[in-house]
Recover the amino acids of this structure.
Protein backbone atom coordinates (compact mmCIF):
# COMPACT_ATOMS: atom_id res chain seq x y z
CA UNK A 1 0.00 0.00 0.00
CA UNK A 2 2.82 2.37 0.93
CA UNK A 3 4.71 1.46 -2.23
CA UNK A 4 1.63 2.11 -4.39
CA UNK A 5 1.06 5.49 -2.74
CA UNK A 6 4.67 6.42 -3.39
CA UNK A 7 4.39 5.43 -7.05
CA UNK A 8 1.25 7.48 -7.38
CA UNK A 9 2.97 10.52 -5.90
CA UNK A 10 5.85 10.02 -8.32
CA UNK A 11 3.42 9.90 -11.25
CA UNK A 12 1.74 13.08 -10.04
CA UNK A 13 5.12 14.80 -9.82
CA UNK A 14 5.98 13.70 -13.34
CA UNK A 15 2.61 14.95 -14.57
CA UNK A 16 3.35 18.38 -13.06
CA UNK A 17 6.65 18.45 -14.93
CA UNK A 18 5.12 17.36 -18.22
CA UNK A 19 2.01 19.56 -18.08
CA UNK A 20 3.66 22.87 -19.09
CA UNK A 21 5.40 21.20 -22.03
CA UNK A 22 2.23 19.46 -23.15
CA UNK A 23 0.21 22.63 -22.79
CA UNK A 24 2.76 24.48 -24.90
CA UNK A 25 2.69 21.81 -27.57
CA UNK A 26 -1.09 21.85 -27.67
CA UNK A 27 -1.15 25.66 -27.81
CA UNK A 28 1.31 25.47 -30.70
CA UNK A 29 -0.99 23.04 -32.51
CA UNK A 30 -3.90 25.44 -32.05
CA UNK A 31 -1.81 28.29 -33.47
CA UNK A 32 -1.11 26.14 -36.50
CA UNK A 33 -4.83 26.07 -37.14
CA UNK A 34 -5.21 29.85 -36.72
CA UNK A 35 -4.86 30.58 -40.44
CA UNK A 36 -7.64 32.97 -41.29
CA UNK A 37 -8.10 36.65 -42.15
CA UNK A 38 -6.99 38.85 -39.27
CA UNK A 39 -7.46 42.37 -40.65
CA UNK A 40 -9.81 44.21 -42.99
CA UNK A 41 -7.77 46.51 -45.22
CA UNK A 42 -10.68 47.92 -47.21
CA UNK A 43 -14.42 47.42 -47.57
CA UNK A 44 -16.90 48.93 -50.03
CA UNK A 45 -20.52 47.75 -49.80
CA UNK A 46 -21.32 48.36 -53.46
CA UNK A 47 -25.02 48.33 -54.37
CA UNK A 48 -27.67 45.73 -53.65
CA UNK A 49 -25.93 44.47 -50.50
CA UNK A 50 -27.96 43.02 -47.65
CA UNK A 51 -29.01 45.88 -45.39
CA UNK A 52 -27.50 45.70 -41.92
CA UNK A 53 -24.85 43.17 -42.90
CA UNK A 54 -22.06 45.72 -43.13
CA UNK A 55 -19.83 44.69 -40.23
CA UNK A 56 -16.68 43.89 -42.19
CA UNK A 57 -15.09 42.30 -39.08
CA UNK A 58 -17.51 39.41 -39.57
CA UNK A 59 -15.11 38.14 -42.25
CA UNK A 60 -12.25 37.82 -39.76
CA UNK A 61 -11.27 34.65 -37.96
CA UNK A 62 -12.62 31.19 -38.56
CA UNK A 63 -15.89 30.67 -40.44
CA UNK A 64 -18.95 30.04 -38.30
CA UNK A 65 -18.88 26.63 -36.65
CA UNK A 66 -20.86 24.47 -34.24
CA UNK A 67 -23.52 21.79 -34.47
CA UNK A 68 -26.17 24.40 -35.27
CA UNK A 69 -24.49 25.20 -38.59
CA UNK A 70 -25.18 22.57 -41.25
CA UNK A 71 -25.36 22.53 -45.06
CA UNK A 72 -29.12 22.90 -44.53
CA UNK A 73 -28.83 25.72 -41.94
CA UNK A 74 -26.11 28.24 -42.88
CA UNK A 75 -24.73 31.20 -40.92
CA UNK A 76 -27.25 34.05 -41.10
CA UNK A 77 -26.54 36.55 -38.29
CA UNK A 78 -25.15 40.05 -38.80
CA UNK A 79 -22.21 39.08 -36.61
CA UNK A 80 -21.40 36.16 -38.93
CA UNK A 81 -21.66 37.64 -42.42
CA UNK A 82 -20.59 40.77 -44.27
CA UNK A 83 -22.47 41.61 -47.46
CA UNK A 84 -20.83 42.94 -50.62
CA UNK A 85 -22.99 44.15 -53.50
CA UNK A 86 -22.33 44.93 -57.16
CA UNK A 87 -19.35 47.23 -57.59
CA UNK A 88 -18.21 46.55 -54.02
CA UNK A 89 -15.17 44.77 -52.70
CA UNK A 90 -13.41 43.61 -49.56
CA UNK A 91 -9.67 43.30 -48.97
CA UNK A 92 -8.43 41.02 -46.20
CA UNK A 93 -5.00 40.40 -44.71
CA UNK A 94 -4.27 36.84 -43.64
CA UNK A 95 -2.66 35.71 -40.41
CA UNK A 96 -0.66 33.13 -42.37
CA UNK A 97 0.41 33.38 -45.98
CA UNK A 98 -1.30 31.30 -48.64
CA UNK A 99 1.24 29.01 -50.27
CA UNK A 100 0.95 27.41 -53.67
CA UNK A 101 1.51 23.73 -52.91
CA UNK A 102 0.40 20.97 -55.32
CA UNK A 103 0.48 18.54 -52.38
CA UNK A 104 -2.51 20.32 -50.82
CA UNK A 105 -5.72 18.34 -51.15
CA UNK A 106 -6.98 18.71 -54.74
CA UNK A 107 -4.23 21.32 -55.24
CA UNK A 108 -6.37 23.95 -53.45
CA UNK A 109 -4.61 26.53 -51.29
CA UNK A 110 -7.37 28.60 -49.66
CA UNK A 111 -11.12 28.47 -49.10
CA UNK A 112 -13.87 31.12 -49.05
CA UNK A 113 -17.00 30.60 -46.95
CA UNK A 114 -20.30 32.34 -47.65
CA UNK A 115 -24.06 32.13 -47.12
CA UNK A 116 -25.65 29.30 -49.12
CA UNK A 117 -27.49 26.09 -48.26
CA UNK A 118 -28.90 22.89 -49.66
CA UNK A 119 -32.68 22.83 -49.95
CA UNK A 120 -33.96 20.02 -47.74
CA UNK A 121 -37.01 17.96 -48.66
CA UNK A 122 -38.50 14.67 -47.51
CA UNK A 123 -36.21 12.90 -49.97
CA UNK A 124 -33.06 14.79 -48.93
CA UNK A 125 -31.27 17.48 -50.92
CA UNK A 126 -33.52 18.80 -53.66
CA UNK A 127 -31.69 21.96 -54.67
CA UNK A 128 -29.20 24.67 -53.73
CA UNK A 129 -29.94 28.22 -52.55
CA UNK A 130 -27.28 30.85 -53.17
CA UNK A 131 -26.95 34.48 -54.16
CA UNK A 132 -26.13 34.71 -57.84
CA UNK A 133 -23.00 36.81 -58.33
CA UNK A 134 -20.08 37.39 -60.65
CA UNK A 135 -16.86 37.71 -58.68
CA UNK A 136 -13.19 38.34 -59.21
CA UNK A 137 -10.93 36.82 -56.56
CA UNK A 138 -7.54 38.51 -56.37
CA UNK A 139 -4.38 37.91 -54.35
CA UNK A 140 -1.33 39.95 -53.43
CA UNK A 141 1.91 39.65 -51.49
CA UNK A 142 2.10 43.34 -50.55
CA UNK A 143 -1.39 44.92 -50.94
CA UNK A 144 0.02 46.86 -53.88
CA UNK A 145 0.44 44.56 -56.86
CA UNK A 146 -2.62 42.40 -57.40
CA UNK A 147 -3.17 39.25 -59.42
CA UNK A 148 -6.57 37.94 -60.49
CA UNK A 149 -7.34 34.24 -60.28
CA UNK A 150 -8.14 33.07 -63.80
CA UNK A 151 -11.96 33.41 -64.04
CA UNK A 152 -12.11 30.44 -66.41
CA UNK A 153 -10.65 28.23 -63.66
CA UNK A 154 -11.82 29.84 -60.43
CA UNK A 155 -15.30 28.80 -59.24
CA UNK A 156 -17.81 31.36 -58.02
CA UNK A 157 -17.60 31.68 -54.24
CA UNK A 158 -20.93 31.45 -52.47
CA UNK A 159 -22.34 28.54 -54.48
CA UNK A 160 -20.87 25.13 -53.59
CA UNK A 161 -20.23 24.01 -50.89
CA UNK A 162 -22.52 25.05 -47.97
CA UNK A 163 -20.85 25.27 -44.56
CA UNK A 164 -20.78 22.31 -42.18
CA UNK A 165 -20.10 23.65 -38.70
CA UNK A 166 -18.65 20.37 -37.46
CA UNK A 167 -16.13 19.98 -40.29
CA UNK A 168 -12.58 21.28 -40.61
CA UNK A 169 -12.52 24.66 -42.40
CA UNK A 170 -9.00 24.05 -43.69
CA UNK A 171 -9.83 20.87 -45.61
CA UNK A 172 -11.32 21.52 -49.05
CA UNK A 173 -14.22 19.56 -50.47
CA UNK A 174 -13.51 17.49 -53.58
CA UNK A 175 -14.13 20.15 -56.29
CA UNK A 176 -15.34 17.53 -58.77
CA UNK A 177 -18.53 17.09 -56.74
CA UNK A 178 -21.59 18.77 -58.24
CA UNK A 179 -25.11 19.38 -57.01
CA UNK A 180 -26.10 16.10 -58.67
CA UNK A 181 -23.80 14.23 -56.27
CA UNK A 182 -25.67 15.70 -53.28
CA UNK A 183 -29.21 15.42 -54.62
CA UNK A 184 -31.22 13.01 -52.45
CA UNK A 185 -28.60 12.96 -49.70
CA UNK A 186 -29.43 13.52 -46.03
CA UNK A 187 -27.05 15.21 -43.58
CA UNK A 188 -25.10 11.99 -43.03
CA UNK A 189 -24.66 11.55 -46.77
CA UNK A 190 -23.46 15.14 -47.21
CA UNK A 191 -21.01 14.71 -44.34
CA UNK A 192 -19.62 11.56 -45.94
CA UNK A 193 -19.11 13.37 -49.26
CA UNK A 194 -17.44 16.30 -47.47
CA UNK A 195 -14.97 13.78 -46.00
CA UNK A 196 -14.04 15.87 -42.94
CA UNK A 197 -14.32 19.27 -44.63
CA UNK A 198 -16.40 22.22 -43.43
CA UNK A 199 -17.28 23.06 -47.02
CA UNK A 200 -16.59 26.37 -48.72
CA UNK A 201 -15.20 27.16 -52.16
CA UNK A 202 -11.57 26.22 -52.78
CA UNK A 203 -9.03 28.17 -54.85
CA UNK A 204 -5.57 27.46 -56.23
CA UNK A 205 -2.89 30.15 -56.11
CA UNK A 206 -1.56 28.73 -59.38
CA UNK A 207 -4.55 30.35 -61.11
CA UNK A 208 -3.13 33.85 -60.47
CA UNK A 209 -2.59 36.00 -63.57
CA UNK A 210 -1.00 39.40 -64.16
CA UNK A 211 -2.78 42.29 -65.87
CA UNK A 212 -1.85 40.83 -69.27
CA UNK A 213 -3.41 37.46 -68.48
CA UNK A 214 -0.06 35.74 -68.07
CA UNK A 215 0.58 33.20 -65.32
CA UNK A 216 1.98 35.06 -62.31
CA UNK A 217 3.89 32.09 -60.85
CA UNK A 218 3.07 33.23 -57.31
CA UNK A 219 4.46 31.05 -54.57
CA UNK A 220 2.60 32.82 -51.76
CA UNK A 221 0.12 35.59 -50.99
CA UNK A 222 -0.74 37.50 -47.81
CA UNK A 223 -3.84 39.35 -49.01
CA UNK A 224 -7.12 38.38 -50.66
CA UNK A 225 -9.46 40.83 -52.39
CA UNK A 226 -12.92 39.92 -53.62
CA UNK A 227 -14.53 42.19 -56.20
CA UNK A 228 -18.25 41.75 -56.84
CA UNK A 229 -19.00 42.65 -60.44
CA UNK A 230 -22.70 41.81 -60.22
CA UNK A 231 -25.07 40.27 -57.70
CA UNK A 232 -24.16 39.97 -54.03
CA UNK A 233 -21.82 37.93 -51.83
CA UNK A 234 -22.45 37.40 -48.11
CA UNK A 235 -18.99 36.45 -46.87
CA UNK A 236 -18.35 34.48 -43.68
CA UNK A 237 -14.58 33.94 -43.74
CA UNK A 238 -11.40 32.85 -45.46
CA UNK A 239 -9.21 29.93 -44.45
CA UNK A 240 -5.71 28.98 -45.56
CA UNK A 241 -4.93 25.34 -46.29
CA UNK A 242 -1.92 24.56 -44.06
CA UNK A 243 1.29 22.85 -45.05
CA UNK A 244 1.48 19.07 -44.45
CA UNK A 245 4.15 19.66 -41.76
CA UNK A 246 1.73 21.94 -39.92
CA UNK A 247 -0.90 19.22 -39.91
CA UNK A 248 1.63 16.79 -38.41
CA UNK A 249 2.46 19.28 -35.65
CA UNK A 250 -1.21 19.80 -34.87
CA UNK A 251 -1.81 16.06 -34.81
CA UNK A 252 1.16 15.57 -32.48
CA UNK A 253 -0.13 18.20 -30.10
CA UNK A 254 -3.63 16.79 -29.86
CA UNK A 255 -2.41 13.18 -29.64
CA UNK A 256 0.03 13.84 -26.81
CA UNK A 257 -2.54 15.86 -24.88
CA UNK A 258 -5.05 13.03 -25.22
CA UNK A 259 -2.43 10.61 -23.84
CA UNK A 260 -1.78 12.92 -20.90
CA UNK A 261 -5.48 13.17 -20.08
CA UNK A 262 -5.87 9.39 -20.21
CA UNK A 263 -2.86 8.95 -17.91
CA UNK A 264 -4.23 11.54 -15.51
CA UNK A 265 -7.60 9.76 -15.36
CA UNK A 266 -5.86 6.47 -14.56
CA UNK A 267 -3.89 8.08 -11.75
CA UNK A 268 -7.05 9.51 -10.25
CA UNK A 269 -8.73 6.10 -10.12
Amino acid sequence: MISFHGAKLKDQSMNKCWLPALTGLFAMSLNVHAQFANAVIAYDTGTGFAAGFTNSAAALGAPTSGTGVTPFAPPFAKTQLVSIGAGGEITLQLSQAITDDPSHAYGLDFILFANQFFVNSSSGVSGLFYHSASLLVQVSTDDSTWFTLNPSLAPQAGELYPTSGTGNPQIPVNPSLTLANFTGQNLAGITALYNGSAGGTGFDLAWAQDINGNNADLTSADYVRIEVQSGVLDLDGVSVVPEPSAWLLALAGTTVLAFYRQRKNLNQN
About this structure: Confidence is low (pLDDT under 50) at residues 1-33, 247-258. The longest strand covers residues 220-240. Residues 2-33 form the longest helix (32 residues). DSSP finds four helices and eleven strands in the chain.
